[in-house]
């Protein structure tokens, strides 16, 4: 039965709760992830009477949490996308700055090295010019070393950040599992009423996890959630949390991300997407490691070409030139899963065919196959792997040994890290081979029209390269060497002898001779210096497409484009995230002006309810006085 006192009391209690909710909103106005709460009031139905139904006051039906699950889920996705590209952009900009810097980049010292060789070609007898070549070579190798060091430092930073991020994900997952338990218990104890503050904490934890790794989630009837990684692997199922860990890959080169679920483990590195962890792995896989390999390819190609040409010249001591740069060999690592005793060694066979990729060499029980480590594309091989007939392909020469077992694998990294190992091998400027190793003199009695058009070294390793050879024409189309043999000659076709190719122009006559001998007194000869300088214009890379300078420009351009694209994507993702956050805040955030107005509204209602109770008491006292009067 309705009465004034009970109605006033219900109003007093209801508006006290309303004031508590408003106060809670105000107190958490700046709490991350807090969702505004609203009191839903409901009239208490009265009892029917002959004069009609009179209500019995008011009650709090529920305290609603103002939250949009769709917007909340979108924010989790936004955080994952934003943190992924933000992390990627950070490393891309640093790599771009290192490679493109005008004072620390490769372009200037590369040009300076070939300028020094051009100067040597102009003044081959100058000791200071020769010293300038070595100085420029040292500057160039130091630049390679420094760039490698900077990129390797970024790689190390990624490794450290990856470990930190994995630990953070595990901590968040554990907290969420514990919170799921608390939510489930609170929901049961509250007769199905949602534990609003715990749900806010839950949503904030989902955003924290999503900031570190891309996830999806599903809700359970008790308010708890399940969290899955990008490819559907469970990270949190109700009150149970799985964990992530890191382990070295099969070759000990990189860290794999592992999902630990009970007693089972699965490598999920390639399936991780989004969040800081996804950005770290993408930056390493798509940006830093390829840049290190491409830089190494430049170093190997330069060193190989310069060494090969210097070996075809003669130094100031009358000796064939030696290596000016050390050339790092390809790194070969056996898989930790190998069961056989096989061995693999590799060398560079053709630098122009190097791609900058890493390769996996696999034995199937009867033969070898090779695939690109990143794409899995098959690489054509020839040879059987023996020392006499090595496996050749992708610019490599590979010799196998021992007894491999079927399924054994080896990682071959032709150029990765090579820029850090290139170095100048001599401090003696006299070792720069500026002169041609041989000279050619026409016989004094020659009567034909044949003239020396040029001489080049085709095989610097020929043991008889510096031996004197007399080429005697027995007719216009035949010749002998040192009086032996009769060899056919076709005008315009080079004559090969002891690793040298002699080019003649014109037609020789019978009896004409040409003497090829060591150029021992040719310290003023600039023939080989000119060829060394000419390496700058040779298309030595990418299948005969790029020069050293254009390949470096391509590397700088590629990394720069990646950095610019990442910056543009970051700007776009920032705007999207900001817009969705504004949408969430407009609906779920606390507006202090609105709360202040509600505070006054409920305060007045509370005071009015108190007045109802006071009035009820006055009336009751009046009634008592009347009855006892």
Q: What does the model show?
A:
With 629 residues, the protein is an alpha+beta fold. The protein contains 9 helices and 25 strands. It has helices at residues 4-27, 69-100, 107-122, 127-189, 196-212, 275-310, 527-534, 548-588, 592-628; strands spanning 37-43, 58-65, 215-219, 225-229, 234-237, 240-241, 243-248, 255-261, 264-267, 331-334, 343-348, 359-363, 368-372, 378-379, 391-393, 396-401, 409-413, 438-442, 451-457, 469-475, 478-481, 484-488, 495-497, 500-505, 513-518. The strands form 7 sheets. Strands 10-17-12-13-14 form a 5-stranded antiparallel beta sheet, with no helix packed on it. It has a 5-stranded antiparallel beta sheet with strand order 18-25-20-21-22, with no helix packed on it. Strands 3-4-5-6 form a 4-stranded antiparallel beta sheet. A hairpin with a 2-residue loop joins strand 15 (391-393) and strand 16 (396-401). Helix 2 (69-100) packs antiparallel against helix 8 (548-588), helix 3 (107-122) runs antiparallel to helix 4 and helix 4 runs antiparallel to helix 6 (275-310).
């Amino acid at each position: 039965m309705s009465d004034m006192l009970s109605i006033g009391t219900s109003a007093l209690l209801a508006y006290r709760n309303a004031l508590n909710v408003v106060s809670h909103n105000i107190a958490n106005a700046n709490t991350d992830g807090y969702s505004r709460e609203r009191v839903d009031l409901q009239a208490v139905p009265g009892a029917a009477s002959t004069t009609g139904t009179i209500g019995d006051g008011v009650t709090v039906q529920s305290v609603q949490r103002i939250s949009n699950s769709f917007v909340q889920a979108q924010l989790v996705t936004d955080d994952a996308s934003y943190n992924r590209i933000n992390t990627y952009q950070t490393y891309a900009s640093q790599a771009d700055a290192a490679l493109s810097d005008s004072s620390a980049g490769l372009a200037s010292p590369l040009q300076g090295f070939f300028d020094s060789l051009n100067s040597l070609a102009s003044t081959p007898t100058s000791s200071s010019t020769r010293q300038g070549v070595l100085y420029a070579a040292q500057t160039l190798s130091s630049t390679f070393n420094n760039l490698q060091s900077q990129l390797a430092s970024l790689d190390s930073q990624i490794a450290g950040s990856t470990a930190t991020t994995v630990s953070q994900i595990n901590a968040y997952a554990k907290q969420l599992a514990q919170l799921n338990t608390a939510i489930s218990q609170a929901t049961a104890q509250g007769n199905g009423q949602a534990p609003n503050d715990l749900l806010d904490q839950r949503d904030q934890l989902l955003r924290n996890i999503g900031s570190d790794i891309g996830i999806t989630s599903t809700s359970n009837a008790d308010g708890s959630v399940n969290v899955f990684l990008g490819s559907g692997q469970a990270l949190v199922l109700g009150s149970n949390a799985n964990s992530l860990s890191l382990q070295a890959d099969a070759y000990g080169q990189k860290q794999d991300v592992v999902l630990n679920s009970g007693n089972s483990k699965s490598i999920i590195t390639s399936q991780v997407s989004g969040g800081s962890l996804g950005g770290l792995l993408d930056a390493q896989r798509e940006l830093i490691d390829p840049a290190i390999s491409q830089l190494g390819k430049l170093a190997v190609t330069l060193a190989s070409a310069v060494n090969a040409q210097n070996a075809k010249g003669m130094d100031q001591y009358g000796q064939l030139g030696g290596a000016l740069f050390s050339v790092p060999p390809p790194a070969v690592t056996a898989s930790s899963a190998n069961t056989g005793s096989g061995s693999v060694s590799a060398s560079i066979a053709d630098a122009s065919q190097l791609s900058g990729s890493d390769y996996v060499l696999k034995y199937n029980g009867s033969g070898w196959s090779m695939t690109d480590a990143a794409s899995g594309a098959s690489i054509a091989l020839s040879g059987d792997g023996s020392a006499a007939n090595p496996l050749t392909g992708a610019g490599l020469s590979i010799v196998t040994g021992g007894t491999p077992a079927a399924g054994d694998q080896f990682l071959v990294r032709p150029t990765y890290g090579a820029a850090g190992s290139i170095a100048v091998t001599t401090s003696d400027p006299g070792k720069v081979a500026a002169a041609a190793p041989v000279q050619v003199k026409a016989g004094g009695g020659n009567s034909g029209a044949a003239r020396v058009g040029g001489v080049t070294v085709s095989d610097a390793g020929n043991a008889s390269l510096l031996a004197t050879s007399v080429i005697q024409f027995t007719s216009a189309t035949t010749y002998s060497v040192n009086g032996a043999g009769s060899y056919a000659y076709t005008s315009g076709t080079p004559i090969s002898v002891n690793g040298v190719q002699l080019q003649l122009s014109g037609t020789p006559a019978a009896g004409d001779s040409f003497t090829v001998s060591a150029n021992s007194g040719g310290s003023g000869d600039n023939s080989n210096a000119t060829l060394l300088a000419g390496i700058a214009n040779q298309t030595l890379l990418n299948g005969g497409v790029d020069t050293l300078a254009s390949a470096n420009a391509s590397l700088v351009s590629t990394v720069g484009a990646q950095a610019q694209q990442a910056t543009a994507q970051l700007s776009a993702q920032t705007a999207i995230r900001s817009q969705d956050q504004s949408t969430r805040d407009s609906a779920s955030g606390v507006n202090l002006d609105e709360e202040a107005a509600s505070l006054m509204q409920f305060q007045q209602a509370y005071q009015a309810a108190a007045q109802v109770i006071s009035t009820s008491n006055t009336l009751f006292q009046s009634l008592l006085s009347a009855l006892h009067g």
